[in-house]
Amino acid sequence: MPDADRNAVADKDYGIGVPVANPAFPLKGANNYDWGMKDRLARIFDARSTRTVMLAFDHGYIMGPTSGLERIDLSILPIGDLADCLMCTRGALRACIPPTMNKPVALRCSAGSTVLTELNNEVIGVEIEDAIRLNASAMAAMVAIGSQFEALTIKNLCLLVETGNRYGIPTLGVCAVGKELTRDARYLGLACRVIAENGAQFVKTYFCEPDFEKVTAACPVPIIIAGGKKLPEKEALAMARKAIDQGAAGVDMGRNIFQAEAPRAMIKAVRAVVHDGLTPEAAFEMYKDLQAKS
């Protein structure tokens, strides 16, 4: 019979008088989320720095075989272990990424027009059940604020947020690309705030100068920056440092990593900037040293 031994009962420690710890969840805006949502965000954002280095290789969903991504198995697998999170499509994930890599995935869930037609005309292309089957840590949708597809893409975002909240999967709202969309603080500040107000748990946008700190300050959830077009390695590291210094919670780089002359060295240098606070100059020296040894 349980607890029949009185000595065993006496030996129990109930911690009487010791207050129960109730630590705050460190990620911006996330303290009131459910446990599962927090758990998935904790996979994406490093516990020590509360920042993330995401590796984006979802370009093919609108661009086809992007330079550097012709063979995902040859370009991404050798560096994927160094990313905090992989951002990709379900097709690339199932076909090219072994589950044993065991990295959190930000799954591209919006789909639609390509570079051959009018960009940003998108729908929800991945249902929640498939995101769950793929063990997604986040679902990503493009949002085209200021374009003719603004209302449609906001609706897409809201649908992902609704289903994501139901199952504890965060939503990443991605600021759209497009020739007609201005990348200044006024536009990006509006776009990021609208995306957050519609429920996204974090936002991907572009770095801008000046006033990027106003964009991050006015957004109640974490902002990560897109790498954008390929830059010289030192410039890409400098952009990452500026973004972090002005409030960004990380980077989601693709071409500036997998198109680098030494991709593995580059992602290590980016990590040093984002997580360890290295200056661009020191990180670039690190990159060159690692490149010489590779």
The overall strand count is 10
Q: Indicate the overall shape.
A: globular
For CATH, the homologous superfamily is named as Aldolase class I
Straight-line distance between termini: 65 Å
The total tally of domains equals 1
CATH architecture heading: Alpha-Beta Barrel
Count of individual helical segments? 13
Give the topology string: H per helix, E per strand.
HHEHHEHEEEHEHEHEHEHEHHH
Secondary structural class: alpha/beta
Beta-strand fraction estimate: 5-15%
| Helix-residue proportion | 40-55%
| Poorly predicted residue ranges | none
C-alpha Rg (nearest Å) = 21 Å
* Biggest pleated sheet: 8 strands, parallel, barrel
Give the strand order of the largest sheet, numbering strands 1, 2, ... along the chain: 1-2-3-6-7-8-9-10
- CATH level-1 class: Alpha Beta
